[in-house]
Amino acid sequence: MLSDFVTMVAVRIARVDLITPGIILVTALICALIAYWKVVGHKSLRGFFDFAFPHEVMTHPSARADALFWISKKLAMPFLAIPAGITFVTVMGYATNQVVGGLFGIEAPLIDGPAGPVTILLFTVTMLLAYDISYYSYHYVQHKVPFMWELHKVHHSAEVMVGITKDRVHPLDDLINRAWDGGIAGFFFGLWTLIALNPVEVTIFGINVYLIRNILMMDFVRHTHFKISFGPLNNIILCPHWHQLHHSVDPRHYDKNFGLLFSFWDRLFGTLFVPKPDEDFKFGLMDRDVRDYQSLQGLWILPLRKMGRQLVKLSRRTIGRFSRKADAAPAEPQ
């Protein structure tokens, strides 16, 4: 049953709720130490804290907006009816399992018993690639479709990066993104339930694959001012510094570095821009009403109002087109 399938996944996710934040915070601390060691000459404990939590960043209106928005989303989440990110994947996975299994007469996993290391490795790589190309395509649409850009502006309106800026995402954007993930990632998830169910408990070594991706991509760190680069690995993994360029207001950096974990999607589709080592960026939007996004009303309501106006304009254009076609149509003979 679908409910049993989703329950199994939810139980697995619940086991890592405390592990993941701990890993993220430790990673952020290590990156802060590395960045501090690289750029600061005279080193001291006070100097490290001044570098990691600069006064001009932590007291910026954008940082305050990030904090208030993060708290308000946490408080509102029980009332938003937004399912866990993995739910759409499991639903699509279940559908794929039933359809493909029915077409080929597969009633049980093709591999019996516990999966070996090769199967686990293949499953992990498959799901990471599926999630990542799913995000790249969604992120591209966010920038190219005006309706979606109005939602995504919430994230790009941050004028400083304070880690939790990663969660400066409108709840409706969250919902659409999670539903989008259910397409590509859910399809491959469903195929793996037919191949070997044991590794497809959405975990790898006890950690949820979705969360593994979030840990590896260092989402918290890349939404800080720490210019972390991976050297030669940048050709595979999108480092925090390269993502920080994505938030730049410099027109040369618009619509660049869409990737989440892997950088080769951007290279493949021509959207990669490699910054200079330790290059500084100015973050935010160039819109005239950018200041309106530094409040809870601006982050929650303004995008919906702008999307509403776009829908009204679209409907008027559509009605106008149909009216012109009707007026131009030849009259029927009497």
Q: Keywords for this structure?
A:
334 residues; two-stranded antiparallel sheet; 2 strands; mainly alpha
Question: How would you describe this protein?
Answer:
With 334 residues, the protein is mostly helical. The chain has helices spanning 2-14, 19-39, 45-52, 55-58, 61-80, 85-104, 117-144, 146-156, 171-195, 209-216, 219-222, 240-246, 264-269, 296-300, 302-328, and strands at 203-204, 207-208. It is globular, with a radius of gyration of 23 Å. The N and C termini lie far apart (62 Å). Mean pLDDT is 84; it is low at 12-16.
* H/E element sequence: HHHHHHHHHEEHHHHHH
> Strand portion, in percent?
under 5%
Please state the oligomeric state of the protein chains shown.
single chain
User: What average pLDDT do the residues reach?
Assistant: 84
Helix fraction? 55-70%
Q: What structural class do helix, strand and pairing data support?
A: mainly alpha
- Strand tally is 2
Q: Judging from the principal axes of the Cα atoms, what is the shape? A: globular
Major β-sheet, in short? 2 strands, antiparallel
Name the poorly predicted regions: 12-16
Strands ordered across the widest β-sheet = 1-2
Count of DSSP-assigned helices: 15
- The whole-angstrom Rg is 23 Å
State the end-to-end CA separation: 62 Å
